[in-house]
Specification:
The chain is α/β, with parallel strands linked by helices and 227 residues long. It is built from 11 helices and 5 strands, in the order H-E-H-H-H-H-H-E-H-E-H-E-H-E-H-H. The longest helix is centred in the middle third of the chain and has 21 residues, at 78-98.
């Protein structure tokens, strides 16, 4: 049954009472969906020869894995797939070196959860080669017990494989694991895995989705609350 937690304190309590918390990365821990959308739009135009609007990126692709998005843009062409992927990786790593996208408040939230005894992992559809530099630079790498990337699963969100793999790596049951997500594909994956899910980011501002499991808040608000 969906939960309806509107107070940041209630959402924080949900996270700290869990055995484990699985964070999505792009758009959740890292405020980079604008960057991802821009890079994919550039690749669509420069590599594949068509325009990808911000609205189409949001509606079709947010929450899907990087390989799945690249494959969709390339239309089954392996050469185009490789070029789109190269454009994404080169552009993303260059941009996060220039302007890191993980707020200090998000790092503080993870640090507080770990200090309270909660196991924390990242489950993301991005590539490990993009995730690890961002985690290292922000200090998150030292706090996490596990990471699951698109490299580690056969099926991306909305399939629950990644979240189930994350819980397995942490040695915790799905029922006591909470997911934090910013996309409907991620919410669907969490529900399919049998895990409560906190929705954050722009979708949260539009009000609760019919099938998400928990309260909706900008993630940074939760970091300001005491454990």
């Amino acid at each position: 049954m969906p939960l309806s937690l509107s107070a940041p304190g209630a959402v924080r309590a949900l996270l700290t009472s869990a055995e484990a918390v699985l964070f999505d990365f792009n758009g959740t821990l890292s405020l980079d969906e604008d960057l991802m959308g821009r890079l994919y739009a550039e690749a669509a135009f420069e590599v594949c020869g068509f325009e990808l609007s911000a609205e189409e990126y949001r509606d079709r692709f947010v929450g899907l894995s990087d390989p799945d998005i690249c494959a969709a843009l390339a239309g089954g062409d392996d050469v185009l797939f490789a070029r789109v992927l190269d454009h994404l990786c080169e552009g993303y790593l260059q941009e996060i070196r220039r302007m890191p996208r993980i707020p200090a408040a998000h790092v503080a939230l993870v640090r507080d959860l770990v200090a309270s005894g909660t196991k924390v992992a990242v489950v993301t559809g991005t590539l490990r080669r993009l995730l690890e530099p961002a985690l290292e630079d922000s200090g998150l790498a030292a706090l996490l017990s596990a990471t699951v990337c698109s490299d580690d699963v056969e099926r991306g969100k909305p399939d629950p494989e990644g979240f189930l793999r994350g819980a397995e790596l942490l040695g915790v049951p799905a029922a006591t694991t909470v997911v934090v997500e910013d996309s409907l594909a991620g919410v669907a994956a969490a529900r399919a895995a049998g895990m409560p899910c906190v929705l954050v980011g722009p979708l949260a501002a539009d009000g609760p989705a019919a099938d998400h499991s928990a309260g909706v808040h900008p993630l940074g608000e939760l970091a300001a609350l005491a454990v």
